Amino acid sequence: MRQPFFALRPHVPVLIAYNNHCRERGQIMAGIIFHIDVNSAYLSWTAVERLARGDTVDLRLIPAVIGGDAATRHGVVLAKSLPAKAFGVQTGEPVAQALKKCPDLLLVPPDHKLYHRRSRELMALLREYTPDIEQVSVDECYMDFTPIAHRFSSPAAAAAEIRAHVREKLGFTVNIGISSVKVLAKMASDFEKPDKTHTLFPDELEKKLWPLPVRELFSVGGSTAARLATLGVRTIGDLASCSPGLLESHFKSHGRQIWEYAHGIDDSAVVTEREEAKSIGNSTTLREDVATEAEADRILLELAESVSARLRKNHLLAGCVAVEIKYSTFVKVSRQTAVYSPTDSTNAIHETACRLFAELWNGEPLRLLGLRATRLVGENAPVQLSLFDMDWQALRKKETATAVRKPDAEKQRKLEQALDAIKNRYGRDAVVRGSQLGKPDDA
After folding, report:
1. What are the φ/ψ torsions at residue 290 (nearest 5 degrees)?
2. Mind listing the pLDDT tens digit for each residue in 413-433?
3. For the purposes of burial, counting CB atoms within 10 Å of the CB of 258, is it exposed (0-12), middle (13-18) or buried (19 or more)?
4. Sheet hosting strand 332-343, strand order edge to edge
5. Are 382 and 317 in contact (CB under 8 A)?
6. Gap between the Cα atoms of 404 and 219, Å rounded
7. Distance between CA 104 and CA 65 in Å, rounded?
8. What is the pTM of this model?
9. Which residues does the annotation mark as catalytic?
10. Non-local CB neighbours of 258 within 8 Å, separated by 6+ positions
11. Which residues of 49-68 are buried (b: 16+ CB within 10 A; e: fewer)?
């Protein structure tokens, strides 16, 4: 068993007690994550703006929604006040239906410029505490609390301070969910609102999470909940009790994912903007465990296409390629290597990934494959070409004074850019390689 994270981090003593608490139950805590979510963001931000301009009525205190057109009764509800919620008004429903529930409902048109400004203000305030912020939408983010834990008496005390700071400086409220993994922090922030802090650690699942309707689990939509009901699964606890194999047979990889979420399994890290700028990657949890190198190579090709397309879109080249695999036993291993010449070529990245995979794989069944491009440089940055990539004929004819790529390499790059354009316009399946025809999609 690996050593507890905090045994190596003496500057965060406030979390050692909780780590010992987890260890007594056979759990090892890797850190603390906050999920911070603005309460009814669009409506709150509009209300604050109107009050600042002299309005005497706070939209948050009357039946009001953001969205739709009062004259035409068209559009949908984007955000609602608590009084509107008391009438049964729901986010996403047509405003005509909402007005039937509450004839005196006040409709306010959205102001997206305002929302983006308020979002920037919120993120700037949160970064006063730590730069380890992953913004996932205009009104929510994850915060890695672990590095700053030593500043506070407890995670709950820190969350209370952050909520008060947001309320006093910006005029609106947030909910904060606290856990050791992202998905549970997200679920916790959705508990009772507004202006609340909630925890949801693995040892709290049975009490706080499992009794909830399965529709409340993150990533379970209405259609999935309806299909689960036909299997007798109505609560998150029912889902947690299911065989993951049964769920995969009905929902493929999504079945495994929601089973993991019901058990609080989520190994995704808080990805800050600084980290994101240093790499571009993609991974896929497989519908069925992969047992052959040929299957893995095909999946790596799909990942290479995705990663290389993103490199080209962002005008970047990769100087290093990394491959990550997770076995069916949930053990994760990875390996990386530098490429001789930075590249955005699908073929070059795929070939490198296949070589890494062959060196890394021990032959056991796989359930996840990941590919990441790192050491990124701009596409116009000077790079070292290999002897095989250089156009020696052009040099001999003195057509250029510097080394350039072979015409075939340039043609291949233009072809990949053309394929990117087609896929962007008509979808990823508009053009496929011959080697991928007739194969199931693992994405």
Report:
1. -85, 135
2. 666 766 666 655 555 555 555
3. buried
4. 279-290, 366-378, 316-327, 332-343
5. no
6. 48
7. 11
8. 0.60
9. 140
10. 217, 219, 220, 224, 239, 247, 251
11. beeeeeeeeebbeebbbbbb
